[in-house]
User: What shape does this take?
Amino acid sequence: MKKSYIIVLLCIIFLLSLFIFQKINLTTADLGRHLVNGKLLLHPENFNTILDPLLNTNFFSFTNPDYPFVNHHFGSGILFYLIFSVFGFFGLSLFYGVCIIFSTIILFHLFHTGRDKIPLFISFPIILFLIPLIGERTEVRPEGLSYVFISIILTLLYLYQNEQIQKKWLYFIPLIAFFFVNTHIYFIFVPFIIGMFLLENLIYRNFIKFKNLAVTFGLSVLMLSINPHGPTVLIYPFTIWQNYGYLVVENQSIAFLANLGINNPNFLWWKIATIIFIATSFFILSKHRKSFPLALVAISTAFSILSFFSIRHLTLYGLSLVPLFLYYAYILYKKPEKNDKEKLETHVIWSVSFSIIIFIAILINFNNRLFADNSGMGLLPKINSSIEFWKKENLEGPIFSNYDIGGYLIFHLHDKEKVFVDNRPEAYPKSFLQNEYIPMQENDTVWKQEMQKWNFNAIYFYRHDMTPWAQKFLVTRISDPLWAPVFVDDYTIIFLERNSKNNAIIEKYELPKSMFSIK
Assistant: This one.
């Protein structure tokens, strides 16, 4: 492997690392719940009684414990817990980052080996431009595994389509599907991606490849059906949104968030990437129709639409553009004659110039991301101060918690306390979230009714919950004579009800109202 290629790979890894590696805010992350899933599945005390409710119901909630829930990502929890057991949160951060970096490099490598090679001075500005999109998703989540699986599948299908590997390699795809279906909801893209290559071969009348891919498609669907929920899980990605009673930022569109004043530089990056994608695709279609990569275009088109309507798909869109843009470069780039050194030097100068411009644009637009205070691996500092206080003082529930902090409480208190709600809208009835959870924060009459219903002893809140109802609720509780704030830090606030059980702790730790800014 040439030195220049290794240097470029190191640059890609370094720049991606600046985007991806951010310390874990456990108070808002799903990660705590995934770790407990893995812990219980690997070390359950009563396996026969815990397996079914953990996989099929809202196991961690005291408000809706029997509500049906498809735990389709339990495999990720097992893997995360195994990593956590040995390497802690630092290891989880590293693992997630490596997943995204590996996914990028394997797709980048497609065009630097074998037949479809392009010069590094052509490919580097392309990958440099796509790095911000690829680095959008920084929270340690099961989707990191999805990026790896999808990248490997795309690589195998591209190589087979371009006759660089034999059909026997396609059998790895059903094997991937078997693991994929139990790790993350992106598993549904396996038949979609294969289907697009099937369609390409059908249109181009390559029936031998069509037949082989049809077998791969059938085997993959069969392997996806091998999971605790059976074949019905294949329709779950399409029905999950029917019971989604809570607005989550990552599920909102670029236009919606931009109208709210949310300034994410990747919104601009998405627009530029999509304009380049559309313009270049039409040019290739008109000038190089026989080389038009129908499958890659269809896949990137789907992911561009998905990422526009739900920003959680931005990384996936960025990854899908890697092989497509590099393929376009392979088609369009005309290598100078060996003796034409002047033309080659001109190409290199243009490439370096573009790379510098892109790099400066990244520095200007993503300065806050690249040099953020939370850059690094492992947990944010003092993230567990509130739970240490809770355990030290032997505090008890029932706890009223907000949506964000549910995974944190599950991680630390699952063996003692159930949560009121957590950050899985699909695990709670829409009516519960819209007619109970939100109104009880907005309306004091509803709050008192819910108080009687659930008999809360404590309120445990992520205090940067910026929803209008959460902020109003916190202000009201500060002024509420029935509740006493006893702990606050950069992440959380804890209130205790004024009762005989809590009197001693309140007397010792109650925080003065003067320390809170109430408008």
